Amino acid sequence: MEHFDVAIIGLGPAGSALARQLSGTMRVLALDKKRQCGSDGFTKPCGGLLAPDAQRSFIRAGITLPVSVIANPQIFSVKTVDVAASLTRNYQRSYINVNRHAFDLWMKSLIPDDVQVHHDSLCQKIWREGDKWHLTFRADGQQQQATARYLVGADGANSLVRRHLYPDHQIRKYVAIQQWFAERHPVPFYSCIFDNDVTDCYSWSISKDGYFIFGGAYPMKDGQARFAALKEKMERFHFRFGEPLKSEKCTVLFPSRWADFVCGKENAFLIGEAAGFISASSLEGISYALDSAEILSEVFRQQAEDANRAYHKATRSLRIKLYGKILKSRALTSASSRKWIMRSGIAHVPLTYEEQPAIADGLVNL
Ligand SMILES: Cc1cc2nc3c(=O)[nH]c(=O)nc-3n(C[C@H](O)[C@H](O)[C@H](O)COP(=O)(O)OP(=O)(O)OC[C@H]3O[C@@H](n4cnc5c(N)ncnc54)[C@H](O)[C@@H]3O)c2cc1C
């Protein structure tokens, strides 16, 4: 059985960034259930918007984004809709619109060859024996085993590592549902939709490469019915759907208290969404995935005596920032404070109707 310094489970943005950063300094095994080629196999349902914090992480790493990953068009504002109050506002945003699957494959392609990567490989079981972590995984059509000093759970919302380390920990979860349609709006746009009758989280739409993607995060119980109800309501706001070309869903974590951020223990570590590192106010998580990977790689590089303690301490400011997002989400999902914020017009960028009739066609109640 091969032994490694570090075994990383999951190569989304968090795991891929960590594997890249540890290359050359430690013996690393990295497992990912996604395939390296093609669009079949696992793909992450995601809006694929890279926030400025994620862009900053690439600046620090000296990495530039290839055009093959970037989606069309780039949009500079988010149309925010309060359904009950019939209010629409435009807020400027500096996201980069990317093709999420292409982005994930590109991030994996940056991992140097000295890291032993298994694509299309599901980690089935983990356990601790003595001072080693043991893993069972499927790779190259057969079951394999390995051991590692450090185990890293970069395996997203349904993290096996998180469930193993904290079997009793409950974090709020929603079902994220997205449908893809042919784009039929006169001008592509992003939107963020609040409707407390449908969800106490929020819904969104994104225009990408000729598709109109409509989605939202809904309570687990009757998510599909709520999603269908909102689609019907949005026709009143001139959203155009047609036949869905693709439907996707997944679990999304919604941290709602300080204790929801968990960093790991016993030489096992959680990074990215597996740690609960996702913004409760926007469900933006790629930047926190990249930041937590960077922090953990630095902890390993410094060979801290108690690496768990060092990682916990080093993520403190990131966790405080995420706690701030929890507070922000409470203000945004409360009907009265949201209405007050939107009515105030702060940061709203009004459209010039006369000059842009096509844009105005897609809007109401400005
Ligand atoms: C619908 C939706 C829209 C979103 N939109 C945005 C957005 O626009 N911008 C943004 O910044 N964030 C967005 N997010 C959040 C973002 O997708 C996540 O926070 C981010 O992907 C977390 O990265 P990660 O690397 O921690 O986990 P993930 O991206 O979930 O990656 C985990 C990886 O682990 C692998 N894996 C899981 N289990 C195993 C296993 N047992 N064995 C082997 N491999 C395994 C999977 O292959 C997967 O690739 C969105 C989330 C959802 C649900």
UniProtKB/TrEMBL annotation:
Domain FAD-binding: 4-167
Name of the protein: Protein CbrA
Protein family (similarity comment): Belongs to the CbrA family.
SUPFAM superfamilies per UniProt: FAD/NAD(P)-binding domain
UniProt cross-references to InterPro entries, sorted A to Z: FAD-bd (IPR002938), FAD/NAD-bd_sf (IPR036188), Geranylgeranyl_reductase (IPR050407)
Superkingdom, taxonomy of origin: Bacteria
Single GO term (MF): FAD binding
One Pfam family, short name: FAD_binding_3
